[in-house]
Amino acid sequence: RCASWTSEAPVAVGDADQIQFLKHSTRTRATINCNFSEHAPCPMEPHHPRRAPTAAMDPPSPAGARPAMSHSSAFLLPSSATPAASADAYAVVVLNQRLPRFAPLLWDRAQVRVCADGGANRVFDGMPELLPGHARDDVRSRYKPDVIKGDMDSVRPEVKEYYSNLGTKIADQSHDQDTTDLHKCVAFITDNSPGSDKSNLCILVLGALGGRFDHEMGNINVLHLFPNIKIVLLSDDCLIFLLPRTHTHSIHIERSVEGPHCGLIPVGTPSTSTTTTGLRWNLDNTHMSFGGLISTSNIVDEDQVMVTSDSDLIWTISLRH
Ligand SMILES: Nc1ncnc2c1ncn2[C@@H]1O[C@H](COP(=O)(O)OP(=O)(O)OP(=O)(O)O)[C@@H](O)[C@H]1O
Ligand SMILES: Cc1ncc(C[n+]2csc(CCO)c2C)c(N)n1
């Protein structure tokens, strides 16, 4: 499945909390992949084709059976390794942690770029550092967020002003001290994405893992708060996403960028039955819970990992350097 973002530059209309940010795409989409015209080429790098979908809904399954959902990390592949035919779209959210090394790549290919509060500082400071061969000011103006959203206690005033002058929408939600800035960003993206079927949405979150443990858990909680939205949390070292119990899961392993270490973790509720194939240590109708068995330091042995469970599980896999 993939997001049906418009290929046009996002247009902000209305007040900050109700921005009609993403216009309806006029394209009709196939079940799995979608193609759309490209953004203007990045002046910093050669033109990138769009990336493969993060996850795809397979055709309807027989009555009674759980539908299948397929997943892929092909969005991390370099341009040269990805067939243009597997084009897809996603939104990027940048959190307030050091930018992962692949941030410019994912940013270039994104349809929508949102910074969570201090995430804007990371883009402002970090993008020029990740692109040392290019003029600092050119990089800054090229890597301009569409929206900065959050309680605004971390974004520096000069960063806010810089991007505001370039047309970035500043969405101040300092009145809300009960939800995290990532929660606010995901809610904003889902509220402003076209159509009612949010299963096509994909959100890549940069800088979500490592760092402060309460923030990490808050970020993982967002996966459970939005189980129907495809959200991938990324750091330089690994990625994680939710496998909702409503589906069977087929995870394609992109061996050039990910693995071999992986884990399956029942964060929200114990599982009385999880079954897998493709792993070194597979589960066969196995019970998993905190205080009992959880699968860590597992190894992907096949190019496709299958997972079925009666509970929502977190899938995690290491990223190659
Ligand atoms: N150390 C960290 N580890 C993981 N995620 C982080 C970390 N720091 C920030 N984040 C993520 O980035 C988002 C924005 O963080 P930021 O520091 O700008 O604001 P905040 O949520 O008000 O944090 P704080 O409680 O530190 O003031 C957070 O909501 C969180 O998702
Ligand atoms: C039980 C409980 N614990 C912590 C907070 C504080 N809090 C949670 S999210 C957030 C916003 C951070 O940008 C803040 C301050 C709360 N409200 N309720």
Unreliable runs:
1-53
Tally of separate helices: 6
CATH-level-2 architecture of the largest domain: 3-Layer(aba) Sandwich
Listing every helix as H and every strand as E from the N terminus to the C terminus, the arrangement reads EEEHEHHEHEHEHEEEEEEEEE
By secondary-structure content and strand pairing, the structural class works out as alpha/beta
Terminus-to-terminus distance: 27 Å
Output mean pLDDT.
Answer: 83
Could you tell me the number of beta strands? Answer: 16
User: Into how many domains do the coordinates divide?
Assistant: 2
The dominant shape is globular
Work out the strand percent: 25-35%
Q: CATH-wise, what's the superfamily of the largest domain?
A: Thiamin pyrophosphokinase, catalytic domain
Question: What is the third-level CATH name, the topology of the largest domain?
Answer: Rossmann fold
Main pleated sheet: 10 strands, mixed
